[in-house]
# Entry
Amino acid sequence: MPLVVLGLNHKTAPISLREAFAIPGDELAHVVRRVVAEPGVAEAFVVSTCNRVEIYALADHDDHELRARVGACLGDSRALDPATLERHGYAHAGDDAIRHLMRVCASLDSLVVGEAQILAQVREAVAVAREAGTIGPVLDRILQVTLRAAKAVRTQTGIARNTVSIGSVAVDLARRIFPSLPETRVLVIGAGKMGRLTAKALAAAGVHRVYITNRSPQRAFELAAEHGWHARDQAELDDLLTEVDVVITATGAARPILDRTRMKPLVKRRKYRPLFLVDIALPRDVDPAVGELESVYLYNIDDLEQISAENRARRHAEVGAAETILAAAIADLEGWQRGQRVKPTLAAIRHHADDVLHAELDRVFRKQLSGLSEAERDAVRAATAAVINKLLHPALATLREHAGSTREGELANAARALFGLGQGEGEGDGDGSAAEAPSAPQTTKETP
Amino acid sequence: MVALLLFAAAAGLSAAGWLYAERLVRFDLAEPRLGHVFMGAATATIGVAAAMAFGADAADAPIRAGALVLMCVAFGLGAVGLVAQVAWKSALTGPVLAPIIGVVCVALALHIGLPEPTLPVGGVRAITILHVSLTIVGFILFIPAFVLSILYVGQVYRLKTKQAATKGLPSLVTLERSAWRLLYVGYPLYTAGILIGFVWQDTGEFHIHARQIFAALSWVIYGFAIWRRVRTGWRGARAAVALMTAFTVTLGAVLLYSLR
# Structure
């Protein structure tokens, strides 16, 4: 049964389209049930994030008609044209679909390579599908291998090692200067959005004391109340600059508010304690000459962007190593799938042997060995079962070994002929279409 | 002649060290070409001095094997330092190695040119043991402080010039605090060691030797740095460079002591 993926992402569709196709969390279960209700679809889950909307469906075949029906599940509830999905979307099937899923989970297909959210988002999507009863044994196995491989990519490569957002770059720099972020005091000058985001990133990293000062004290009080910070009067700015360790400036001032003349005596008053200045304002709030002062580390938005770009490049350099891990996982999955293809024949041989054994034992226990106690009968059963196992083992092992090879069909036919199995028993070996067809999850088939 | 060449090399290395350190504390990314010229010339001079020391000219005034080995080490370090600066663009190698090699050259030149009189043979006095022990313990504590200062200056340089961090290093504040704490413990011991050695010299006569000047100079530099630190909270790259300089001078005193 091939895995089919249909969807659109940040590479193929503009944000307006992604917004239109995005599925709210509370509708996800309904959509995934709707997908499984399509004829030919056995298992499915749906991933919907700000950068991608994707349906993963395990179907009994893959053709244009099936893709159109499954794709329609994305659009019909919001009256979207299915042709839009065809124009701006993509579809993969079989190994390509598995590779795509692995790349998505390992964050190789993300807007920011190596970001951590996508793995959590896929896990959430799978949890919703599991609750909706649309995950069966095959998708379960594929997801197990995929999520394990994605975790290995994160831990065994440097793909997630270097931070790339402006806020996290600032946090990293602060960590290089100060030994303990919880003891670090941060001052936000101005109410600019980027400044607030950076301060929030520092607060999320453990900073407890964040002060904010603004030209409009009212706005400073509002923001302080909103984020749990402390509002201070701008008249106290010099005292604050002496006291704090990190300063984030994000005002709309046309000229620098912190220049060398103002900062030089403050550096002495600070007893040369390090001061990390993050100037996110445009035009800049801090005169570049301030960065030349002893123990002052000044970074403006361009500096942070440059570090972010370098870190992104470092992450991209790890993609090759990540792909190697994924290739090994795909090979592992292929091996499992091959094993699944001969499973019906193996099971049929085993059942046939068991049936013969039980019939013969029942016969002799009724006639020649009727005087045996139950314990003695158990001993006879165990001994004959062991003989059967030993006799079957080479045949079953050979079938397993050649699963997926060019000889698979020939050996499966030979086994069926040699063991006297009917054509219907174990059928499907060789093309993989009906073999080990997982029972479709118990879902209500809706009329589309 | 060998001593003169070593003095000349030391002068060149001092100039190179100054130019390198100046660039480091100004956080200048430009290549210090003049520093390379001085470092290259000084290294070549050390090579010539070593060759002469091995040659016939030195036969009249034999140079001890230890001094010869030290000369070769200084030459090798100079060459490595130059390659690191020029080829690998290492900003720290020059400012660290040039002064150290310079001090080694001065110590060797003084040892060869102005040999100290042989010490009278006598029993080892308890006061001498105390003097040597305290000085050595102080010096041992200065070693990690010196290493931490190098790491600190390197990190400050990278932060100021917006370069990627060296992975796995503690924060700047941790590096700086640790170096100074070692100094706060080592300096009183070093002071006591110097004082005891100065007051109760084991020769019984009062002499001022080069090693004593080196020790006194390093004591003054360390003392000045600590005084500024206590008074004004002095820290930063310049303070760290002061600690590195003091250690380099201390190293000169230790070398002269070992070579006598």
Notes: The helical segments of chain B are 2-25, 33-54, 65-86, 93-113, 126-160, 172-199, 210-232, 237-259. The two ends of chain B are 20 Å apart (CA to CA). Residues 102 and 240 of chain B are 19 Å apart (CA to CA). Residues 2-113 of chain B form one domain.
